[in-house]
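Q: Hi! Curious about what DUF2007 domain-containing protein looks like structurally. Here's the sequence.
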Amino acid sequence: MPKLLLNLRAVPEDECIDVLRLLEAANIEHYMTPASRWGISHGGIWLVEETDWERAKQLFDQYQNDRREHARRTFADDPSANLWSRLRAEPLRMLVLLTLLLMAIGLALLPFVWLVTRG
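A: Let's find out. The predicted structure is below.
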């Protein structure tokens, strides 16, 4: 009986492709269901044989751990990972963005300020 290995909701395309390649390399029979037309179902990767579940799950868990560690290393190596480093790297751009943000907040609050001052 088929068993769902991975629900494709919010799964990036590269991760989906990697999992499919992983299953193919391990000779685990699988198939992929597409997302529904109206977004009710996001599709999934299914194992044909339930007996392959343990082996596929171990491979998938190892892949997830490797992917997580790679993402953490990439984030740690990124010098523009936080606001302060971005402000130091691009002060003019950050000043423009901050000005635009304050203008948007001011426009959103303007009707309430008019109500308070008039009434």
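A: A fun detail: The chain has two domains: 3-77, 83-118.
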